[in-house]
Known about the structure:
With 172 residues, this protein is mainly alpha-helical. The chain has helices spanning 10-35, 40-70, 82-108, 129-162, and strands at 114-116, 120-122.
Amino acid sequence: MKMSVTKFDRLARVFHWVSAVVILWATFSGLFLAAVKVEREWQVLISGFNVSLTTVFIPIFFGRVVHALRKKKPSYQGSLNALQAKCAHCVHVSMYLLIMLIIVSGVLMMRHEFQVFGIVNIAPLLKDVWLCELFSQIHHYASYILAVLIIVHISAVVWHHYTGKPILKRML
Ligand code: HEM
Ligand code: HEM
């Protein structure tokens, strides 16, 4: 007999996949730019695009957090044991907190005025160079930790999928 799956509601699923695309891109393209020497024009283009994209993402992420806090998560119906459910919960909460930290530090590390897709100009919030540098370091290390958690998260979903636990279907 086929096991029926309780899914996240439609809005939660849309929020998840929009966030997944933005965060996967921003994290791995950002880490790539920091690790590999690319031509100056590409560096400027990608990093300008990333700053615009992640700024537009801020209200979307805020909406996602509010929605996650208001709605109860669908039950695992025995597909995960209590320990696995606790681990999944810890990883999810850590990802939410890290994304918040990365967004806040990203905005606060900006030393100069920046543009959002050439439409809106945003002035720097902090003047102190030392503080901006501190937030830049926080942004850097928090995005490393997030990258590790994303890999753990995706590996867990794939592992559950191939061991017959339909966790992925909860988000489809
Ligand atoms: C979802 C949110 C975000 C993610 C996942 C993210 C991720 C990253 C990553 C991985 C890096 C490279 C870190 C390094 O190795 O130094 C980076 C750099 C940077 N981020 Fe973010 N970021 C986010 C939001 C923001 C926001 C909101 C801003 C500012 C408005 C911002 C501004 C920057 C800047 C200026 C850099 C320096 C390098 C560059 O210009 O590309 N980020 N970000
Ligand atoms: C291909 C990539 C991804 C896949 C296949 C995937 C899959 C899933 C699945 C199946 C769930 C439900 C898990 C459960 O019910 O326990 C989930 C939840 C979650 N995912 Fe992903 N995910 C992906 C990428 C990401 C990324 C990049 C992030 C952001 C860092 C992310 C953040 C989350 C969070 C925070 C939850 C918990 C949702 C909640 O309970 O409010 N996911 N994901």
